[in-house]
Design a protein that fits this description.
Length: 246
């Protein structure tokens, strides 16, 4: 298991009260980071995850609330983290809603919600995190993508999700190019199906979905001090998935 030394670092994981985000937060905690457990509405779960993070080895852990799709609330969220834990050194953009319906059946509100939580939120949190990272000349940003975004695969369902995650990969690479002299790396981790999914497709590689540890190991790799020359990359955590009809 990867064990980067993150003591003295502050990590913010968006959407980390539950699920994969929670696994990211606990993995960073086990490696000594102070962890901000972000939530939008799951307050009780965020407090529980923060307590688990402290027990797991975090220097400190606090729950922080905010809507990451609006500039004002993102600024308030970061100010809360900075007041309690210090400037953000590690940012993991995990937030992202689904809309598993045919695109013709989606409402405008569904489209906007999925695009904003996956794509706009990534832009806003990265923009807010960068000044502190640039000041310290050290930073790690890991954005969560989706395996089909790299492969260019499409489906009549989940249009806004696929489009947003493909945009996240392009944004990741553009931001990596813009920060190559700042001591900051920007990378992506793109799973296919993870263990907390509501339903599993028939074409699961290796006979199972990815478990949380499969994905967190890729995230930790990008956070390691020794990964400082790797930026603009994407790790697909998909077991080698390729649909049979491609």
């Amino acid at each position: 298991m990867l064990a980067p030394d993150l003591s003295g670092r502050t990590a913010l994981v968006t959407g980390s009260a539950r699920g994969l985000g929670r696994a990211f937060a606990l993995a960073l905690a086990r490696n000594g980071a102070s962890v901000a457990v972000h939530y939008h509405s799951s307050e009780a779960a965020a407090h529980a995850t923060a307590e688990e993070a402290r027990e797991a080895g975090a220097a400190d852990a606090v729950p922080v609330q905010g809507d990451v799709t609006h500039p004002e609330t993102v600024d308030e969220l970061f100010a809360d983290v900075e007041e309690n834990l210090g400037s953000v050194d590690v940012l993991v953009n995990n937030v992202g809603d689904f809309a598993p319906a045919h695109w013709r059946d989606l409402s405008y509100d569904d489209w906007i919600r999925v695009m904003h939580t996956n794509y706009t939120a990534t832009y806003l949190t990265c923009k807010r995190a960068l000044p502190g990272m640039e000041s310290e000349r050290w930073g790690r940003i890991v954005n969560v993508g989706y395996a089909s975004g790299e492969k260019g695969l499409v489906s009549p369902k989940n249009f806004p999700y696929f489009a947003a995650k493909t945009g996240v990969l392009m944004f990741t690479r553009m931001l990596a190019a813009d920060t190559q002299d700042d001591g900051i790396t920007v990378n992506a981790v793109s799973p296919y199906v993870v263990e907390n999914s509501d339903e599993f497709p028939d074409d699961l590689p290796r006979g199972r979905p990815a478990d949380y540890e499969d994905v967190t190991q890729a995230m930790l790799f990008f956070c390691d001090e020794d990964s400082g020359y790797i930026s603009g990359e994407n790790i697909e955590v998909d077991g080698g998935w390729l649909p049979e009809d491609v």
